[in-house]
Amino acid sequence: MTTTLFDLTFLLVAPFWALMILFPKWWFTHKVSESPLIVLPPLAIFAVLAASRLPELWAVVSTPELGEFTAFVGTPEGAALIWAQVLAWDLFIGRWMYLESRRLDISPLLMAPIMVGTILLSPVGLPVFLAVRRYRRSPVAS
């Protein structure tokens, strides 16, 4: 079951990413992305996985120690649980970036690689987007 939930997590977020990257100007993409509820599917998987390991999870997050955290994440259930959390967080960040890029009229051709970078490594994609956003918001010198 854990492997199925792990695999399902990506399948649940991939359509939203595909819409934001491949069809950023489509009205449907904007309509779907307006709702923060798009992060609920991976969070539901997180909840299912967390419910089955709640005592261990609580111990790891309430008194974090590297060894215990490593041991927890080193299990299939722990890795799947963290994966669901990461994908939900990345989608939440990506959704904000998408909406902000549309508001600022940032080119989808520029945003596509930034969004892919965010899917793969959000700690890299987000700062790149913030730099682009800062530049886009700067007044143009006359």
TrEMBL record:
A Pfam family reported for this protein in Swiss-Prot or TrEMBL: ABA4-like
Keywords: Membrane, Transmembrane, Transmembrane helix
Protein's UniProt keywords contain Membrane: yes
Keyword Membrane: yes
Bilayer-spanning residue ranges: 6-27, 39-60, 110-132
Entries under InterPro entries matching the protein: ABA4-like
Protein name per the record: DUF4281 domain-containing protein
Species annotation: Lentzea tibetensis
